[in-house]
Amino acid sequence: MIRVSSLVKSFGDFVAVNEISFEVQQGEIFAFLGPNGAGKTTTIKMLTTLLKPTRGNIEIDGLDPQDQQDEVRRRFGIVFQDPSLEWELTADENMELHGVLYHVPHKLRIERTEQLLKIFELWERRKEPVKRFSGGMKRRLEIARGLLHTPKILFLDEPTLGLDPQSRNQMWTHVKRLNETEGVTVFLTTHYMDEADRVAQRIAIIDHGKIVAQGTPAELKEQTKSDSLEQAFLALTGTSIRDESAGSIDQMRNFVKMWRR
Amino acid sequence: MGAIYILWLRELKRYTRSRAQMFGSLGQPLLYLLALGFGLGPVFQKSGNGSYLQFIAPGVIGMTVLFTSIFSGIGLLWDRQFGFLKETLVAPVSRISIVIGKTLGGVTVALIQGTLVVIVCLVAGFRPVAWTAVPVAFCFMALIAMVFGGLGTAIGSKLQDMQGFQLIMNFLVLPIFFLSGALFPLDHLPKVLGFITDFDPLSYGVDGLRGALIGRTHFGLLTDLAVLSAVAVVLVSVGGYLFSQIEA
């Protein structure tokens, strides 16, 4: 479903992603883990047509994200690290907008919107503007929206960031269920190792732009002789803290958050 | 087509749902119209130029369309900030249709806001020379909106953060307004000022509005129309191009 070989992305002198290769099978839940700044988001951006690789090959359902951009875009849904909903519009309208952008036929769109909003427990609130939603509701709506055009792959970039344990638990239950019922392949990143351990069938760990380990959660634990995935992760990536410098966009976001209160 | 429509609709909904913004942005035109219109009126009259309210009303309408359309374009910055931009960038539609939908939305919003100000002007006592000229005035409003909607999109595509916003406001938007002849006649200006105003696209917009509404023009209606159309094509293209270059 996803095939990546010798993928490289450099920004000037800095090599963000360095010769990584991996495969994700159809219907699999695949977790892509790593410390801050390891290259996770850069990789997701390349997989989802948003960034051109410096070198290497990517295949999404047999297609090249650069050459067959629109074809590839139709095949995946994505939930970004930061929210990407239109806050002034209602849940329903956000779904409509997405459906139209993805050329989902009107009747199908209505049916699927109802189905998804019910699964994600947002149906009752569908006429309310998103700005009144809680963090967990916004996240659920984004996943529902990402699934509207029946993608084959769902990318989830740290989807549970900032959610309480209840919302996190509920979200993964839904994702797992959709993976089983619709057979959608899930590619996720998260900092919560227990989540990856619970939902992912296979895991790749990236650090400093290189993949340092790949396998099932059990294999990774065995390989590092650890009891938990968290210990395995620390054994593989070390215990020093990585600081990401906040980019200008992040600074602006904080500025706005301040004003929104 | 669908993408253009739905993004146009989004701009419109955003606008109509924030009543505070809608009425709040009437404050400034009202202030110019009433404070300057009536305050400078007697001086203007004495110098033999007729009613200042009649003169300034098209300028205030032009200003409203300028502000609304340029900020609608720069609104890209907010889309980037609240993340909605990514949703459109990753969708299987061309960047061009996204930017067309957004720009048309901005033009529509600017026309509605302009219409509200026209009504405010009428209430304040402004009277166009002929009512038949009103459609011509709307044409000019639409052209002004396209010129500055395109410019706003170009800026919004390049601007990375809020810090740049003040800069744009003080060194671009306000000069465009103040150097356009919205507030003073362009005839007999000092050479340098006259030279600068000739390069301000809004000069032609306001002049066109004035020509249509009160039958008084500096450049001539056809020149206004030609210059505005040409600048609109250039700026909308530049905006579209820069938008297509955005990396998420």
Task: State which percent range the strand residues of chain B make up.
Answer: under 5%
Rg calc of chain B: 18 Å
Succession of helices and strands of chain A: EEEHEHEHHHEHEHEEHHH
Q: What helical percentage do the residues of chain A reach?
A: 40-55%
The radius of gyration computed from the alpha-carbon positions of chain A, rounded to a whole number of angstroms, is 18 Å
Following the backbone from N to C, one meets helices and strands of chain B in this order, namely HHHHHHHHHHHHH
Structural class call of chain A reads: alpha/beta
The most extensive interface between chains reads: A-B, 36 and 29 residues
Q: Helix segment count of chain A? A: 10
Oligomer: heterodimer
Q: How far apart lie the N and C ends of chain B?
A: 24 Å
User: Strand share of the residues of chain A?
Assistant: 15-25%
Task: Give an overview of the whole structure.
The complex is a heterodimer of chains A (261) and B (248). Helices cover 41% and strands 22% of the residues of chain A. Chain A is α/β, with parallel strands linked by helices and 261 residues long. Chain A has a six-stranded mixed sheet with strand order 5-6-7-3-8-9, with helices on both faces. Chain A has a three-stranded antiparallel sheet with strand order 2-1-4, covered by helices on one side. Chain A starts with a strand and ends with a helix. Chain B has 248 residues and is mostly helical. Chain B has helices at residues 2-17, 19-24, 27-39, 41-46, 52-74, 76-81, 84-89, 95-124, 134-158, 163-178, 191-198, 201-214, 221-244. In chain B, α3 (27-39) runs antiparallel to α5 (52-74), α5 (52-74) runs antiparallel to α8 and α8 (95-124) packs antiparallel against α13. The A-B interface holds A 45, 48-51, 69-71, 73-74, 78, 80, 82-89, 93, 96-98, 100-103, 129, 248-249, 251-253, 255-256 and B 2-3, 5-7, 10, 13-14, 17-18, 80-93, 160-162, 247-248.
